[in-house]
């Protein structure tokens, strides 16, 4: 019996998945991705981060192709430096959704990612960025959040956990927006019906690929639609329980090169450390 074809598309989340806690990609993960690309695969970043917060990272990875950003609301061509597709969150609907959530759980603190390749992240008083390394501009009042088109709204609550806030928001928002949880301290509102699977499907189609060609890696509930779309979903050891429940496989954590471990197995690659040891061994016997 012939072996099944290797995945032609590798879709990786960033935070908690490909990135380590210090926002870097390990040498082993870089080597595994490069090896998979040499074997004929395409690597596609699929992240909740908006385009402006991922461009530098894409450059450091040498990724000159497509990237899915903003929880699937943006498909970005890194090589051309332009947006191929984007969906905005209606600002009036966002304000209405926020009002409904606050009527349910009390005051929340909000931030927005502006639309576009140069959009800013604006945060209202009281909002704390879950990723302090990511730049943000503080505004004086909530009304200032809506001064330009936005791709999504980020929410934090002073007392509720992320799971509790997500559940409460979903119970009242309805069709005003899609509610996602994408990381510690990160509950988001995005355009209704938009998920990572939406952007991934569009990007894959642009590349002439489909769900049967795709292996996906993630760690949070916002990755569930991506796992449901892809042929094979791999959750990190540090993944949220909801994602682990729907994963086809669980690998090591993002700090332990979990993505690389799977790619090395699937594409028959030697781990970077092993290659270095073999080179040293050959040198010692010359």
Strand-helix topology:
Layout: E1 9-12, H1 27-38, E2 42-46, H2 55-61, E3 66-69, E4 74-77, E5 82-86, H3 91-105, E6 109-114, E7 121-123, E8 137-138, E9 150-156, H4 162-173, E10 178-183, E11 186-190, H5 196-206, E12 214-218, H6 224-229, E13 232-235, H7 241-246, E14 249-250, H8 258-267, H9 272-284
Parallel strand pairs: 1-2, 1-12, 2-3, 7-8, 12-13, 13-14
Antiparallel strand pairs: 3-4, 4-5, 6-7, 6-9, 9-11, 10-11
Helix pairs in contact: 1-8, 3-4
Description:
The chain has 286 residues and is of the alpha/beta class. Helix content is 32%, strand content 22%. The strands form 2 sheets. The protein has an 8-stranded mixed sheet. It has a 6-stranded mixed sheet with strand order 8-7-6-9-11-10, covered by helices on one side. Strand 2 (42-46), helix 2 (55-61) and strand 3 form a beta-alpha-beta unit. Helix 1 (27-38) packs parallel to helix 8 and helix 3 packs across helix 4 (162-173). The radius of gyration is 20 Å and the shape is globular. The termini are far apart. Residues 275-282 have low confidence and may be disordered.
Give a short synopsis of this structure.
By secondary structure, the protein is α/β, with parallel strands linked by helices. Helices cover 32% and strands 22% of the residues.
């Amino acid at each position: 019996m012939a072996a099944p074809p290797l995945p032609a598309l590798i879709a990786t989340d960033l935070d908690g998945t490909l990135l380590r806690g210090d926002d870097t990609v390990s040498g082993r993960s870089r080597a595994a991705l490069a090896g998979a690309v040499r074997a004929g695969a395409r690597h596609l970043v699929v992240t909740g981060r908006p385009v402006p917060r991922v461009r530098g990272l894409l450059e450091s990875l040498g990724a000159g192709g497509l990237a899915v950003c903003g929880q699937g609301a943006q498909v970005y061509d890194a090589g051309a430096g332009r947006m191929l597709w984007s969906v905005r969150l209606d600002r009036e609907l966002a304000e209405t959704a926020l009002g409904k959530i606050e009527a349910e759980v009390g005051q929340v603190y909000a931030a927005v990612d502006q639309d576009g390749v140069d959009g800013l992240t604006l945060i209202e008083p009281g909002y704390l960025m879950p990723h302090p390394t990511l730049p943000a501009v503080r505004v004086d009042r909530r009304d200032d959040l809506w001064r330009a088109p936005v791709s999504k709204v980020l929410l934090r609550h002073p007392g509720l956990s992320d799971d509790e806030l997500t559940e409460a928001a979903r119970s009242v928002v309805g069709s005003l927006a899609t509610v996602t949880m994408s990381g510690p301290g990160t509950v988001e509102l995005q355009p209704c019906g938009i998920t990572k699977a939406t952007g991934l499907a569009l990007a894959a189609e642009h590349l002439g690929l489909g769900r049967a060609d795709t292996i996906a890696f993630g760690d949070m509930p916002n990755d569930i639609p991506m796992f449901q779309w892809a042929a094979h979903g791999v959750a990190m050891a540090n993944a949220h329980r909801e994602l682990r429940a729907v994963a086809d496989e669980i690998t090591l954590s993002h700090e332990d090169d979990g993505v690389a471990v799977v790619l090395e197995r699937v594409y028959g690659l030697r781990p970077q450390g092993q290659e270095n040891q073999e080179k040293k061994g050959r040198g010692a016997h010359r």
